[in-house]
Amino acid sequence: MSEAAKSKYVGSRVKRREDPRLLTGRGKYVDDIKVAGLFHIAFRRSDYSHAEITSIDTEAAKASPGVVGVFTADDIWDEFNPILAQSRMRNYQPTTMAILAKDKVRFVGEAVVAVVAESRYLAEDAAALVEIEYNELPLVTDPEESVKEDSPKLHEQLASNIIVQREFNRGDIDQAIFESAVHVKERFRFHRKTSLAMENRTYMAQYDGGTEELTLHTSSQVPGIVRDILVDALDIPGSHLRVVAPDVGGGFGGKTSLYPEEVLVCILAKKLEGAVKWTSDRIEDLISTSQGFDELIDAEIAVANDGTILGVRADVIGDVGAYSIYPWTAGIEPVQVISFMTGPYKVEHYHGRVRGVATSKPPTGPYRGVGRPVSTFVMERLVDMAAQKLGMDPSEIRRRNLVQHDEFPYKTASGIMWDKSGFMEGLEGACEAIDYDALRSFQAEAREQGRMVGIGIASFAELTGIGSRLSASPGMPINTGTETATINLDSTGGITARFGVTSYGQGLETSLAQVVADELCVDIEKVRIIQGDSAQVSHSTGSYASRGAVMGAGAAMLAGQELLQKLKRVASILLACEIDQLSYEDGVFSALTSDNKYSLRDLAKAYYSQMGIIPAPLRNDIGDLSVTRVYDPEWGTTSSSTHIAMVEIDSETLKVDIKKYVVAEDCGQMLNPMIVDGQVHGGVAQGIGAALFEEMIYDEQGQNLTASLVDYVVPSSTEIPRMDVVHLDLEKPKTLGGVRGMGEGGTIGAPAAIANAVSDALSPLGQQVTTLPVTPERVFRLIEAGRQGLSQ
Asked: Which of 42, 267, 715, 751 pairs as cysteine with 124 (C-beta 3.0–4.6 A)?
């Protein structure tokens, strides 16, 4: 088989095969599934952030029309085993997941009572009749207060509100600061946000009392993880539990965790021996789906006269919310902030400390980028601030500190190992694509006209497609480092490939079909992809951490190559020739010694249906024309990128307008450049939201003041600029196919690049951006502070 034949689809801009179905309304999401006799859940949720439940009166709700049952924590307490997100990290305190709040509530929006009725409307009406009395407890809403020893505890059984803490040390940071020519110290704040997927979380469970089988349809990125924990939580055999994620309308990390409502629909389906569904409304989504970021960072950098970074120190307080989320734990966001703080730079002296603190807000969990948007924001701001003090161009200080081509593999101060990636090439590629020198000249002219124009650079690196030697979340004792693919040829010649990874908008159905089609040298239309169904593979976790393409494609390559070897053995018998005398092209085997040919359809029909044509010993040896392979990249690989943004601040509205944006990234072998571009564009769009618009705001009482899309502001298409994306054609990583992950990069680089650009625009006023999002109100305050300073 020629290499040209193998690359017919991989690397090509194949149109997404999902789109005709999804764009014409023929997709099948959980809420589209119709079941006879389906019951619906509505919740009565807490109005208080921290309070004791003193009484619950459900009598009026139970008497309401159409109500099947009303359930409190006491009603379901014996129906499941406790669920805890465990970790091997020292100084970690797990919290038990509350399916329904028992005895006390710990955030506004926590579910207390579940009402099951014949329709959602009737369930909502009945839920409004539930009367709950509370005794308010001391507030635990401020993370800086919660971290103190004398703070009221959110979880009485824990030693403190500090759920997780960790430190990294290398070298002597104090000495580095003492010897530095330039020392920058600042406090940074990255505010809380939410994933805001287009499809709200939705769960529907069906229980068959005759077969004792439970099926959960879930809008999840991780059906395999959900299946595994539910088996333990519900004491049900794994063979009797199926978890299916059909079409999923976006996830962005918010759908990678197990949720109380997900468990509850299963408990109630078993209890009622029927089908039960809950679909979140938008308010519920905003107050109960896991949220991201929410870090306070005191950081400093020490730099020599020539711009060399000598050392970095960071002290982080992460507001992790009320519970440690399953399975990732409370450490997934804050610990990765200090793990990735030094980014793609050579830093010899480093001290990083983090404390993840419980507060009475919804739990934080994975959000696209996980920790790295925060660490990149802080590090890139420090680098720019140091360059400003030195009078050095921001691009030049990066050139002097990025890990160079001949320095890979490079071990960072926190112990992360970067394999060879285009750190320098990304910077140079982005500068060239945006014509950096000309942009600086334009900026100088604009400033002479009184315009506030700024240019910002952000360089970063990330681990993607991590294997079994690392954990997707620090200390988490769950195997997230392998992925499974099964490819089979059935008796009609049909090719079906089954995967554990799950698609939720990123085009995996197309990308994986490209890989399988190339490995088996067939038209892509002949390949069917099944994913997101725990019954299809023996073990899977799902899609997160930029792993779908790396892991799924790797498993597909292994399975496809082995299946092709099986098919060659069969073809050699049918064509009466040796294997090395076979020719195979476009799904057709032929013998070099004759004119005989066998298509895959003919081969399958002969193998499965024509008695005696294949000797029994060979048939027994080959078995089914199906192969299952597991791929483990062990350490994973490093993706890297540089983003450059040019912004202008409107002098009247103070709106930040992004005029130019360029991304230069090294994601290895692109399976589908069109999909890669889409991922970059989407990631940058979300990064723009984090930089300029999106913020979950809570008052001192723990009330969410942004619980609707009137108040929680997200960018629309008019706020997203045209982007230029440069794909670096460099040495491929050692992953199968040379694939790197890249789904999170846009969200990692954009906030830092925009923050640096806005700071650059405000630099004549002597102001620095230290808080994101940098909303018009915050821009106003910075400008006013700068003008007052200049006038004094």
From this structure: 42
